[in-house]
Request: fold
Amino acid sequence: MSGWRGLQAGLSAAGYVAADDLAMALHLALMLERPLLLEGAAGVGKTQIARTLAGLRGTRLIRLQCYEGLDAGHAIYEWNYQRQLLAIRAASEAGETGAAVEERIFSERFLLERPLLEAIRQPVAPVLLIDEIDRADEEFEAYLLEILSEYQISIPELGTITAVTKPIVILTSNGTRDLSDALRRRCIYSYVDYPDRATEMAILAAHHPKLEARLIAQIVGFVQALRKEDLEKTPGVAEALDFTAALVGLGINDLTNDPVALQASLVTLLKTQGDRAAVPTEVTQRLAGKAA
Amino acid sequence: MVRMYKRVTRFPSRAAGPADRVAGFMAHLRMNGFKIGVQETGAALAALAVVNAWDETEARIALKAVCTGCAQDFGRFDDLFAAYWQNLGHERAGEAKASAERRWSSEMGDQAGSGSGRAERPDTDGDADAEQDGEGRLVGSRLRNLMRVDLREVVAPSDIAQAQVVAERLARAIRDRRSRRRKADRRGDSLDLRRIIRASLSSGGEPIRLYHRKRPERPSKLVAILDVSGSMTVYARVFLAFVKGLMTADGNTDAYLFHTRLVRITDALRDNDALRAVNRLSLLAQGFGGGTKIGGNLAEFNKSYAKRLVSGRSVVMILSDGFDTDPPEVLGNALADLKKRGCRIVWLNPLKGWQGYAPVAGGMAAALPHLDLFAAANTLDSLLALEPELARL
Reply:
C-alpha cells in the first residue's frame, strides 16, 4: 500500500473518510512540506481533517481562527507590556542600569506567543490550522505568506526566530473573498465537495457503527436529494451527522414511518426560516419516499 | 478508461524524458489559463517522485493537487489532463483559446483585463491602447470608446465586467465613512491619554494599562432597487452586473429587482460566479418584462424590507426609467415614506442622458422633490461621473 493510500486508510480508521483527491493532496502536502489549502462549502469537513490528522500523528493542533481585523499582535506575538512596566519599576528600585533593564525586558520571558509563533517553536511538528483565511484582511494574508515561505519570524527587539520544526499547515477558506494568487501558488490545493453517495454512507457508518445499513442508505439518499433542492444554506456533512444523531435519538428506524418526527428533525438540516418554509411536509415525504 | 489506455501519446521527438513531458504539460495548462510557473513544474516533478507515477489515476490527482489553485481550475483539470496525456486534443489552440475565454469571462469578478490577452474592441481614437498599467483609474482611460456607448449596446461579457468595476468604485465611495468623534476601542490607533493617566493613579503614576481610541467606521448601507420592466429590458443585464459590483464591494449591500412585483435578489447575486448570477437573473427579468408598477413596488418595499433594512445610514439607489403605470401620487407618497426613514435616495435614470429628455413623465415628476440625487445612467462614463457626487451625499 503506497503512501497516500496508507494515509487514507489511517484517516478512515480515525473516523474521517477522505476522497481520493483530498487524501492525495494531504499526502503531497506532507511529503513536499507545503501548506495545504482547502476550499469548499461550509460543513464538508475542512476543519475536521486537521483535527483528525493531528490525532493520527499524535501531535498538537494549533488553531488560528481568522476574522476581519486580525493583526500580528493576535496572530504572531505581542510584548507583555504590563509585565515589562513592572520589571522596569522593580529594576529602578533595585538600582539596575538602564541597558541591563532593556536587555531583560525584551527577552523571551516578556514575549506572549500567539498561534503562528507558537507553531514554529514546537519540538514536534504540530498541525497548524489557519481557519477561514478568507475572513482575514489582505494585509494579513501577505504577512502569512512570508511566514509560510520562510518559516521564520523576525521580532525587531529580539532577532529572527527560525522554525525548530516545520508545522503541517492547513488553510481553509469558504470563498467569501478571493485569495491572492501568491498564496494559492504556495499551497497544495484541494476543493472539498459534498461527498458522493458511497463516501457519505461511509462517513455516517464511521460515526454510527451500530446503525443498520438500510437506514444509512435512506438518510444519505434523503440528504443528497435535499441538497438538490433550491435552498439558501445547503446542508453539509456536519448537518447530515446531526440529522442522523437526531433520528437515532428519536428512535426512528425508517424515514417513512413517522412524518411528524421526520419533519421535526429537519431542524438539524435546515438552518434558515426561508429553507424551513421551502421544505414543507409534502416535500419531505416525497424525498423520503424516493430515498426509501 | 480502458479505451483511453489504448491511445498512445505522441510526443515531440525532442521531448527527452519525463521532466520534459511534464514541462510540456505545464505549458499546456498555462495556455489554458492556469496561473503556474517554473516553481510549479518543480513541485509537480517532486510530487510525481513521491507517488506511484505509473498509475494514471494517482499521477492525475497528484498533479491536480499541485497545479490547481482555485475551485474552477480544480474542476477543469481532469479534462485538460486527458486532453494532454491521451491526445484527445493535444494543444488544440482554438479550443484552448475558447476555454481561456470562458474562464476569463466567468472570472469577471476580478479587475477586468488582468492580462488575459483578450483583444480590445477597435479603438478609433488610437490613444487609449498605449497605456495599460492595470491599476488605478483603469476604467477611465482604457476603454474610452465603450464608455460613451449607450448601455443598451453593451452586451459582451467584458463590457458587462466593466460595469461591475465601475459599480465597485461607486460602492466604495458611498461606503467609506468615518465618524469624526473618537471612541474607546481595545485596539484603536491612538492612545487615550486622559484615561491612561487617570488609571495610572492607581499604580502610582505608572501607565500600566493602556487605553486606545479610534474613529469608528460608520459605513453607509447601500440598497439598490432595479427596474427590469419591459422598457428597461435593454439595460437589465448591464445594470444587474452593476448591482452585482455594488454587492462585491460591500458585503452589506442589499439588492432588489422589480417589474410588476418586488423580488429580493441579494442572495442570488451572492453567487460566486458573477456571469452565472447575472445570466440567471437577466433570464428571470426578461421573463417578466411587462408593465411597471414603481409606486406600488416601492410602497411594498416600505412595508416589508425597509422596516428592517433601511435606516438613517442607508443610501437607496433606484435604477429606473420612471415610466410608471401606477398613478404618480403613489410613487410620490412611497418615496416620501421612504424618506422619513432618514435615508438618502439616489435615482439613476438611463433616459436622463438622452438629449432633450425632461423628467415630465408623471411618475418621474412626482418623484423629483424627494430625491437627493437624480442622475443619468446611460453610459459607463455617466456612472463613473457619479463617484464624487455619491461621496458627498
About this structure: The longest strand of chain B covers residues 221-227.
